[in-house]
Each structure stands twice: as C-alpha cells, then as structure tokens.
Here is the input.
Amino acid sequence: MNKLPIAILGTGNIGTDLLIKILRSKYLECRLFSGRNLSSAGMVKANSLNIPISSDGIDAILNFKSDLALVFDATSAESHIHNAPLFAKKGIIAVDLTPAKIGEMCVPAVNLNDCLALKNVNMITCGGQASIPLACAITQSNPNSVQYLETVSSIASRSAGPATRINLDEYISTTELGINKFTGCAKTKAILVLNPAIPYVHMQTTVMASISNPDIERTRARVHEMVAEIKKYIPGYELVLQPTMENGRLITSVRVKGLGDYLPKYAGNLDIINCAAIAFAESIANRY
Amino acid sequence: MPNTASLTICDVTLRDGSHAYNHKITADQIYAYAKASEESGFDYLEVGHGNGLGASSLQVGESLLSDYEMLRYAKNVLKNTKLSVHVIPGFATLQKDIEPAIKLGVDLFRIGCHCTEADISQKHISFIRSAGKEAWGVLMMSHMASAEVLLEECKKMQSYGAQGVVLMDSAGAYTPSETSKKISVLVENLEIPVGFHAHNNLGLSIANSLSAIETGARILDGTAKGFGAGAGNAPIEIIAALVKKLNYPTNINLYKALDAAELAANLFSGSLPKSDSITIVSGISGVFSGFSKPVVRIAEKYKIDPRDILTELGLKNAVGGQEDLIVEVASVLALKSK
Here is the structure.
C-alpha cells in the first residue's frame, strides 16, 4: 500500500515531534518539512533524518513538485488563518495544530468519523484533547444535569515553547470553546499551569464538574471506557484519579506520558495533540 | 540616622485573606475594611479572589462575589488609596478579565506567575501598560529559584514594561538571610522598585520583611492581623509600627492602621490565621500557602494525615494552581496506608 504523502509546516516542538512520529507510521510519509529557519533545532533534526526541508514556509508546500494529500500546520493561529484558504485551493487537507479554529474541532475518541470528509480540521489544544473526552463521558453519564465543567492542565515548563507562552489566552478560550462545543455545557472554564520542577513533571489534566444529581458509578464506568478508547492512539494516557465526589464537585484526573519522540517523555502535551492529529491523518490514509 | 527612601505599602488583606475565608468575603466586609485601609494611608489596596482575577473555580475555590462586584465595592470607597488586583496568566485573560477591570477603574495590575515563568506575563503587562494603567510583575513561590534566576525573570518583566517587581514568599519558606540575598541582587541590578510579600509559616514574616527593606526593597505587602493564606502574611499593623520606628517615610497613619487591624479582627473573627502543625509542615515543605485549607478538608475525607499530603506535594514540587493534585495525592496515600 502506498503511504499518504504529507507535509509539515512549522518546525518548532510540535512540528518536529510530528515528524518523528510520522517516520514510524505505516500509513503516512513526510515528503516535506517546511519552515522559515534552516538553522532551527527542528530543521537540523529533520535534515539529519534525510527529510526534504525548506525555509520557504507555505510557498514550498504550494509549489511542491508532486502531490501532497495532507499538511499538518504547526505554525501559529495567525499564520493558519492566512494559510487555510491556500491549502483549500490546492485541495490539500489541512490538519490545524494552532488555535485558529477555522475547521471543525476533532477529538478522535469522540468525533473522528464525523471529520473524515472535511478539508480542514482543528486539533484544539493539548488540554482540549486530554479533557474533552472526559468531559463528554461525564455529560453522557449525567444527562441534563451538568451545570458547569472546568479543566486544569499542568505541564512541564520545558515543554511549553514561546508560542504557547505568548498565547495562553488563546489556549484558554479555545479549550473552553471545545468543551462547550462537544458537551453542550454552556458554562466552561480552562486553566493552564506551568511547572518548572526538575525532573520535569508529566502533563496532568483534571476535569471537574458541578452536577445536580451525579451518577458516580455510571460516570466511572463511562470514563474507564473512554480512557481505553483514547489509549488506542495515545498510549501514555492514564487515569490517575477515577471520578470522585469531593466537596460537592466531581473530579477526575489523567496523566499523559509522552512517547519521548522529539522531546522527552514528560512532554505529554506535545504527544497528545500530535497523536490525535496522526490518528486523524492515518484514518484519512486508510480511506484512500 | 533616619532612612530617607520612602516605602510603598500594599494592603493585600482583601485578596490574600480570601484564601483564609474560603473566598467568601462579603460586600459589607469589603466596604468596611476598604474604608479603614484608606484611612490608614496605605498606598494600594488589593481586592479579589486569592488567586486573582478570573480565578474563581472548582480548582481553587469559588468566590461568593464576582470579581466585578468585589472591585466595584472597593472602588466606591477608595479615594487616595489606589485599587490593585492580582492577575495570574493561565487563569485571567485580557478579554474576559482584564479589560473589564480596566473599565472599572483598577489602578494597578500585579501580574503574577510562578517564579521561573516570567515570559507568560509579557502579553498581560504590555497590554496593561498600553491601556495607560500601572503594571508590576510578581514572582510567586520565589523560594524555588536562586537569586540569579529570579534576577533574569525580573529583568524580563522589566523589559515588558513592569513598573515594579514583587518577590512572593508564597510558601512562607524564606529566612531573613535568604531574603536579603535575593532582594539585594534584584535591587542592585534592576531599574524598577523591588518589593517583598511575606508569609508567616515559619514565624518569620516580619523578620523577612525587615530584611527586605534593609537591603533596598521599596515595596512591602502586608495584611491586617496577617489575614491571608496558610499561616497568614506579615501583619500590616506591625509593618506600620516598624517602619515608623525606623523612620522610613510612608503615608501611613499608625493609629488608623492599628484600628484597621482591630476592625479586621472583628470582621474576620474565627478565620484569622494561626500557626499550627499544618502551616509549619507547609512552610518546611515549600508548599503554596493556599493549599492548607483544601489539604485539611481532603485529608479528612481520605482519613489520612494532612502533613503527609503536604510533604508529598513538596516532593512533587507542586506550584500554585495545582490544587487538583491534592485529591490525587490523597487517594494514592490512602491506598498505600490500607
């Protein structure tokens, strides 16, 4: 079977980690790794792996000599807003790893099949990928009684690059919107905490809910099912606190260990959004 | 010899005290205390949820009043004393939280982050400065970084436009020698005034505050009767008396400051901080003071020793905002103890 030809735009932590994962994929082949700076760490890494690189950014993708079926856009929200119509015009499926929110939000454990015919999907945020399936499990188990959903993610400082740091507000609003969209819960809140501890901490995501009449046993069962579903594409996703009532709130936590591809294993936040993006792209590949 | 450099005194009673009151401070309490703080001549009064703007949450506790209500009540009372807020990027956003606070008339925004993460304050500080408001940088949990690292982080905040920086001893873990070492490095190398915010877990809040001003700090935080997270803050009435004895120029009216402290003792009776085994272990473990109350509550639920939770959180290097770890740590400790 031929692998799906793809490109990666953006050579920061996310783009480079995606590249390493794609090198292992049975279904995807990276034909081009494009950014702006040939001496960036990611670019040097890609070159050392004999991946075609370019510093012409999106132009290199638009003018590429052969067909590209799909591009992972790991630039910035601002850039993706500029890039999206250009990809669309070329007929390239765009997997958006920025918080630009142009395309349909995709969480593979929840709505993968609804996204496969789309030309632009948005991977929300790392905290969104970790929390939305739990939030869905909670609302599915407690129909019409979840009044409020909140998620907190803590990540290792070292795993938060400059784009993440300058865009905390976008992270928050995109994650809140994602939870709202997937659960229908009108009142949502997202919080992000950076922890500089050494050894670096693993990403940890907690979902809390105010529920008028919680069915805790049903919620636990549904959360366990959901975690098993996510583990299929994010092996390091682990439930560390099963749904528990404390002080009138429901609380449940997961820890996300990364695969240790580009950044070490603590960077589960990179892993989770990239694993989700690849789960989507591989499903596209399997349709061809 | 009289000290000539004047001090800026920040009264954070109605913000740090929120931690000690399960974030349930009422409108009447805000009116009454803000009036007393104004009469005391404190330069700034900080008001709001213990974790600042936009922090009311299941994670760190839900406020009785909205940010908007709390700030409006205080603003209605204050004339000479300026209104300040604490802001943590990751909780508070420009659009949802800061823009409304600017419209409401908040004078000073103190942008806080964990002590090694100053770059997350850039957007918030520059936004506030461009709106024509005053912005300071705040490094929280600053016992966790060396003087050199703190200086680098403060320099970043200075470069973003911060007009002052405050080191917070959020865990009450500092000693006087550590305070003077860190403050003096900042004072010698920064162009903006440096401040200190103490907690009293190891009984050193006033000693550390004194150490800070003796080595050049020009801003001190305090709270009436120490009303604040964990073992509380440096009691502002004692700061008032101390700086008078040492002849530092301030705007404080000492008797009024003493009266304000007595008022706070009445308003918040039963919730004033006290030193106990929880706050002491919290201090030596270097755990954020705001964790104390939820730790006690959750330890009771899981029938384990709250001190074990604090020790474990210290080993995990938990930072402010990671309160969700408490339940997870407690559940694991409870399993082990079976």
User: Anything to note?
Assistant: Chain A has two domains: 4-124+271-287, 126-265.
